[in-house]
Write a structure and sequence with these properties.
- By secondary structure, the protein is of the alpha/beta class.
- It folds into three domains: 2-346, Glycoside hydrolase, family 3, N-terminal domain (TIM Barrel, Alpha-Beta Barrel); 372-590, Glycoside hydrolase family 3 C-terminal domain (Rossmann fold, 3-Layer(aba) Sandwich), CATH 3.40.50; 648-773, Sandwich (Immunoglobulin-like).
- It has 21 helices and 30 strands.
- Strands 3-4-5-6-8-11 form a six-stranded mixed β-sheet.
- 56% of the residues are buried.
- Residues 1-43 have low confidence and may be disordered.
- The structure holds beta-D-glucopyranose.
- Residues 90, 108, 166, 213, 292-293, 413 line the site of beta-D-glucopyranose.
- This is Beta-glucosidase.
- Residues 1-26 form the signal peptide.
- Pfam families: Fn3-like, Glyco_hydro_3, Glyco_hydro_3_C.
Amino acid sequence: MLSKLLAITFSSSLLLSGFTFDMASAKTQNLPRVHKNQTSIGQTEVPYLSDSASIDRVIRAMTLEEKAKFVVGVGMPGITRAPFEITGAVGGTYGIPRLGIPELRMADGPAGLRIRPTRPGQTQIYYATAFPIATSLASTWDTAVAKVVGEAQGNEVKEYGIDMFLAPALNIHRNPLSGRNFEYYSEDPLISGKIAASVVNGIQSNGVGATIKHFAANNQETNRMIIDTIVSQRALREIYLKGFEMAVKESHPWAVMSSYNKINGTYTSESADLLTTVLRKDWGYKGFVMTDWFAGKDPVEQMKAGNDLIMPGSPKNSNLIKLAVEGGRLDEKILDRNIKNILRIVIQTPEFKKYQNSDQPDLKAHAMVARKAAAEGMILLKNKERALPINKNKKIALFGNTQIETIKGGTGSGDVNAAYTVSIAEGLKEAGYQINQELLSKYKTYIDSMRRQEPYKIKPHPWGEDFGKLVPVIPEKPLQENEITSASKETDLGIIVIGRNSGEAEDRKVVKGDYLLSDAEQDMISRVTTEYHNQGKKVAVILNIGGPIEVASWRNQVDSILLAWQPGQEAGNAVADVVSGKVNPSGKLTTTFPVKYSDVPSAANFPGTPAANPAKVIYQEDIYVGYRYFTTFGVKPAYEFGYGLSYTDFDIRDVKVNKGKKFKGKLTISTMVENTGSFPGREVVQVYVSAPDGKLEKPAVELRAFAKTKVLKPNQRQLLHFNLKAKDLASFDEEKSAWVLEKGIYTVKVGASSENIKGSATFTVDHDMIVQKVSDVLKSKVGFKRLTKQ
Ligand code: BGC
């Protein structure tokens, strides 16, 4: 690394000038706070960054110019400045060698580390592992799996010489069309917060930093850099900030990335209410805040707000900051505060500790982690007469282009340059299935010939090689009648693969080929199922998608639907694990699949107004996001939040709450889970609570806890316990600016989905309780009508 080179050059120049400062021995010898053997200018000793005690002295020794440069990143390769030694790193901090401050390097996630695989003049290839997309990871409902994925990702970050990973991302699935939903976990803040905290803990166990992003209410791509999100304080606290609050408190991420959008009129990166009052004062955050790339307008306001670092940064930003201090518009103390926040993290980084990265993470081991997580995140949406699993000695015919061009993950900064993607066709073949060769080779020929034609040629990504490739969607291969007939005669099962992709900078659309099936896909489903059913055989659909599509109009035609998501580079192998029954599917939806798009509560307010070029978006649905809306307003979804089938059956029973059934500061819930089927498997047990309407109205149910069983053998049982505290059950009262627990009878509903409740119990809260007072900030300046039950 260049910065490593600088560090070496610097220490040799120290040696030449007679200094022998050695960080490691300084630590072990417990030297006095001001090191005697530091470099000096004239008579003045110049401090050197060594530990947290040295930070204030180092800041005092910085010139104003150095300060103004340090709070601004060093640019972005290809766009501003900074051709980094780690090609594909997307940003870095400014180093001040004379004070012992190294440069840090940052690179993207969240599905894996995004760096460029090739470097000029080198033969080594720098691949990273493409893990399943965030929505898939959350669909595991397994915090242990999320932590292991985080550990593997953090190891690649460290071994490739990066200090800060720009992940995980945990914005809310407010609307299924948001182009980056695949990078986010859920429509629910509890599952988002728990999975994010586990991933952060995993990443940071390597001694590298995680960055939770995009803080906050960044739930669409349309006009993302200017859109003004108009939202109530209650919806902010309960839905859009809650996951971040949990991640901050449960995993202490080194950095938070503020978002592009405004909240109630102010850019998040310029909002002291958000970045200082909520994040630091209310939540006790101790890391640093960086902007999203090129976000916001005014660097001085960003500094004041507590946005410690401007990314990717330009000399213009530093100049404006320096001029503002000189002109009295910005107090230098603010700069000192921000610098301190960053330096407290700098001293923990591999770069500061002079870690010699190997450039050789164990990609084979990480591929296995990716495969396991991908299979655990797959969701069986339908399985009529147990069409799946299917034995490996059976014959399968595969339909749909995506069997070959399987999609590992979404596009944009969340893409990963992986060594390979195992296609669904390859994975099933590898597992031992006899794939109908004739049909497979016709698909291959078709795809090859289409890819040679201009509109479908795979091109370098317009944002640069680091961002992977631009892969235009090719129309479904037209199916000849005899192709379907002979495949249905020769094979035991037909599998249709449907694929969708989306990514940064653009939202999805309710059009054929995106949210809706294309005519060719509809046609493929009806003709293939008709032929197979005529033969008394079954058809399964595999959905290789990053977010919901319309399913209600076609699902009755097919026997099984496996939602594989975009499962990362091991896609085909993970699909084969589930299709074969090697892994019994145990994923559950973390996002609702509506019957029709217009059923979505935010449908009328997405992506904002004016429709031609939205400047603002009003979150009129308020707290009724996702299942909170569907359950409260009695709208039946196609597949509800929490839904997912298994090859076995489970009984969830004996739901109990603690003795006396009174809430006294904490609540213990227990339930027994039993595998009543004939296949080993795992069940996700979901604890919803229905709170009584008081001064505040409440959604019909809210997820308050969850757990996943171990693999239970047939007839095996597991007793699960859940502990809830007042804050876990509380609602946000805007008048009091507080989390409150209102008195009344609460019902605990334990089940296998938000609509499939298996047992319940009640408890009472005797009097209204103020659980936690927080700051009265982020109020909407304009009135708007909120969705209400009344
Ligand atoms: C994205 C961030 C990303 C950054 C750096 C931005 O466009 O919104 O998620 O970390 O670019 O690539």
